[in-house]
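Hello,

I think I submitted the D-ribose job twice by accident. Can you confirm which output corresponds to this input? Input:
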Amino acid sequence: MIAIGSDHGGYRLKGEITAWLKENNIPYIEFGCMDGASIDYPIVAKEVCERVTSGAADQAILICGTGIGISIAANKFNGIRAALCTDTYMAKYTRLHNDANVLCMGGRVLGPGSAIEIVETFLNTGFEGGRHQRRIDMIADIEKDN
Ligand code: RB5
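Support: Only one job matched these inputs. Its output is below.
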């Protein structure tokens, strides 16, 4: 299950991505802006990240205008590794090396074609483990200490 949410800055791109998820029979639950009206991105980050940390969703996609604000908010949640990606290389390596569980993108930065390729790469790439697991454990230790 994928949780997907956006503020107003990511509303249009969220629609393109949910259409693609539907076409590809990938189950999702949708949060945030549903009509273009303004909504504060930290609210959306909270709703979506809680689905991931509770296990209700396996992974998530968050979109705001730049992708920056919503990724900053998402990374405040313990257990969330949110990655702002602007190309497929970043999407591939954040899964392989960071085991990112939230993909963040900018609705005012990316067109639908590149965004969908980024989503596809993110969802279809697994975590490499090994030395990268040690580094993720170190991130979890930072969370515990703060
Ligand atoms: C909203 O105008 C905009 O600030 C937001 O979508 C995002 O880009 C923040 O980082």
